Amino acid sequence: MTVRAVGLVLVRGAKGFGGLPPAVPCGGAIYWRAPPFGQNKWLCHKVGRGSGRVKGVGARDQFARQQPRDVAWAARPLLMSPNQGSAHAPPNPPWKELGGKPDQAGGFALVYYSDNLSRLPVRFVTKPGDNKADPNLETLTFGLFSTCNRSLRSSAVTRGYPYLFFITRRGATRVLSGYYHVRWYTEGVFRGMKDFALAADEARFLDPPIEVNDVDRQCGTRLRKWFRSYRLLSPDECVTLLKFVRRRPDATAAYLSEMDRLEHLNQHYGGSRYISWKQSDKFSWRFAGAYLKTISASSSKDRVLNASPTNTWKCQNCGSRIRNKALLKRCPDCGELGSLRAVKG
């Protein structure tokens, strides 16, 4: 199956909020307040959280019940086609085979931010001042567009570990939402700083996701033990988790549809699909071409940090100051790669 964005499903009876595009089914209440940095006009919150917020009239629940029946469930994991119709996709250069020994195929459990405006644990598309790009299901990549988890990506390449199991928080508990089987890698924008991008040839994401307590009980893992960013998984653990996830229907198409819905919210209320990135294009292999270049980190003195104490970055090329919590690989104003540096005070 070729990875592609899926058209939105308009649920019968669902009504949008005032000013919301009618093709976008509502999934939460929207209210106005002074937005944090980088989020120009709006901030959304999930229905029913706290007092003084507008509540839905049943459309959210109807959407939650209806959506799984509108998804064409796949019997096998979502597979990446050989080149995705683009010269930028693997196995074309600069992508290289990850390698590694099949009997030593370990992996990682990694934590990502999921969107609290969505019934599904998709990446945090609407996070104010810090729109998230990973896991990037549109291209089945990790770390191609963002700077998150640089040490994990480096470790995966060094060890030849192909499995990424995605963990996120939903309510008061963590859940397992899906996995990647990584087959390719390439150097990222910041060459010489162990910056790698990973690309998968196989993925599966779940609806509903599974609480980590249930995963541990059935798989003998220890995912419920707290870890901040990621933890290593043994080859035996990966085999067990893989069988566990593959027994469940593949909801990746629903995740893609939901991310498109959230991007429409960003576009309508903030002017761009990814507001702090000033990006109106969808993620795709065509769009990825601009990111498949590297620059040299001239020395340790020029080491690029992923965080800024002021949440502000200055472009060394055009001089623009950019507000975003995490480092962006590309300047939103001039498009220069690797040009942003933290403003420390």
Q: Quick gist of this model?
A:
With about 350 residues, the chain is α+β, with helices and mostly antiparallel strands. About 20% of the residues lie in helices and about 20% in strands.
Question: How would you explain this protein's 3D organization?
Answer:
There is one protein chain. The longest helix is centred in the C-terminal third of the chain and has 19 residues, at 252-270. This protein is of the alpha+beta class and 345 residues long. The strands form 4 sheets. Strands 3, 4, 5, 6, 7, 8, 10 and 11 form an 8-stranded mixed sheet that branches. Strands 14-13-15 form a 3-stranded antiparallel sheet, with no helix packed on it. The protein is globular and about 55 Å long. Helix content is 18%, strand content 21%. It is built from 6 helices and 15 strands. The relative contact order is 0.17. The chain folds into 2 domains: 30-270, no CATH class; 298-342, Rubrerythrin, domain 2 (Single Sheet).
Q: H/E order of the elements?
A: EEHEEEEHEEEEHEHHHEEEE
Q: What structural class results from the helix and strand content?
A: alpha+beta
Low-confidence stretches: 1-75, 297-301
The end-to-end span amounts to 49 Å
Average predicted confidence as pLDDT: 79
Q: How much of the polypeptide forms β-strand, as a percent range?
A: 15-25%
**How many structural domains are formed by the residues?**
2
Overall spatial form: globular
Main β-sheet description: 8 strands, mixed
Number of strands: 15
What's the helical proportion of residues? Answer: 10-25%
Radius of gyration: 20 Å
The helix tally amounts to: 6
